[in-house]
Amino acid sequence: MRRIAVLDAPSNLGLRPPTETSVPGCAKAPGALRDKKLLTRLDARDAGCLTPPRYDPGDWRPGDGVAHALQIHSYSVRLAERIGAIVDGGEFPLVLGGDCSILLGSALAMRRLGEEVGGRIGLVFVDGHSDFRHPGNAPYVGAAAGEDLALVTGRGQTELAGIEGRRPYFRDTDVVVLGIREHDEYRLDLQAAGFATRPSTALRAEGARRTAQWARERLADCAGYWLHIDVDVLDPAVMPAVDAPEPGGIALTELELLLTGLVNTPDCLGMELTVFDPDHDPDGRHAAELVSTLVTGLAPLLPPKRPTRTPRVPTPRTPRTSTPTPTEKRPAA
């Protein structure tokens, strides 16, 4: 059984700032989840934190390409090295983002691994949005967190889509997309390119367990797969603490079942969690619910609980009463 190793990747580099003077809050997610005892409840090894470059969008303008492109490039290379070391050590990496641009580091690690084992690695992409904006279908690009699926399948500027000359990290037909909304603007593009897709409505209709099995069957020819979970796949009614909430998502219990079905196989090589924003969770309630969902969903990876042994209480012994020796009478003088 593989032990879970938790690695923090608190990068905001793929997001545009909420306002001109603020910074996205997703970088705080790993800390918020750790505060709710995630590592203890998963019996996980602490694999540390990979500190990202400084967030500074500067004077970026539409047409300049992806913002923070050089910083994301360098961070992705470092992240791939850390993930690769965890997998090589026989552990299951759980990467806590951060925004969806961390997928580039995970994808690079999987591409390297595929070359080592002589096979293709697939991707199960669980997200409320397709993140498929690229120069071929949009007037301009800019935020890598909204373009990560396009980038990891080889679409976009070379310093992100072709790191180390390994474009693409995943083939289109080796990607399964789950949970996007019916009205996603790039859904038809995904279908035309050959991606296997199941939007949230179909996922709920078919059931999370059967959807997980369906996804695994689509990737049966791969040597394994990586699991990407964007928290905005959940409905805002149960998880409003995300960067871009979108109605029509799934429930917490459905995410639990989906996770269990996807990680309950050696083919699942690791996973990442993205876009939870503690700035929208002032009392920590949603962080606690998310941790409980992860613990339940990742149960197949947890060591079996040892049965609690009731301590043996010795039977109290009745103290032996000694018969007092009668006092001898002395003869009278």
UniProtKB/TrEMBL annotation:
- UniProt KW 4Fe-4S keyword: no
Kindly state one GO CC term assigned in the UniProt record.
Answer: cytoplasm
Q: Spell out the CDD domains in the cross-references.
A: Arginase-like_1
SUPFAM superfamilies in alphabetical order:
Arginase/deacetylase (SSF52768)
The UniProt entry, under Gene3D superfamilies, shows:
Ureohydrolase domain
In terms of domain of life, where is this protein from? Answer: Bacteria
* Metal-binding among keywords: yes
Q: Name one GO molecular function term.
A: manganese ion binding
Q: Where do the segments described as Disordered lie?
A: 299-333
Stored Pfam families: Arginase (PF00491)
InterPro entries from the entry?
Ureohydrolase, Ureohydrolase_dom_sf
Q: Which UniProt keywords apply?
A: Hydrolase, Manganese, Metal-binding
Please report which protein family the annotation says this sequence is part of: Belongs to the arginase family.
Q: This chain belongs to which protein, by name? A: Arginase
| Species in which this protein is naturally found | Catellatospora coxensis
